[in-house]
Amino acid sequence: MCFPNDDSLRRFDMAKNFEWQNESYVLIKTGRIMAHEKQNIFVTIDKENPYYDHLESFYIISVKNLIKNQSMSCAIPIEIIDYTHCIDHIRIDKGKIQYILRNIENNTVALVKYTIDSGEKEVITEKSVIQSYLEWEIEDPWYYSLTCELLPTVGTSPIYNLEDGECSLLLNLKDI
What we know:
Number of strands: 10
Order of helices and strands: EEHEHEEEEEHHEE
Shape: flat
Largest sheet: 4 strands, antiparallel
Oligomer: single chain
Helix content: 10-25%
């Protein structure tokens, strides 16, 4: 399946489903190179002949459109970047897709908030706001202490976070 910019699922990194205004969507991110790897590539790359797999992008598509068209061609690109940038800390909250966009070339960081309804982007560069966003991510979720007690029994039955639907821990229930 190809995306609007000829990107491909062969470069798949992650997917996340979410609901917005009674419609199901999928957020798909491509680009298998992590931020620290991009930093290393940026320092050593031949800018005239960049590493072939340096692109990173993410899209949203309604599940209805995906099923109807059986194609990613109607996916909406949120961000498409090259080896000079990286995307991380993606969060979906109240009709906005939020993420950190790092500019490796200029050594800058921005919090980007993409509004699903309008397609508008708000770019925030204020350090205190970005720090607050990043600190929110590292706070222990309410279920963390409970799952830590179960870690010795890690197996194959999934436990999902009720807040965002993410698989938080795999347990073998017969060992509990």
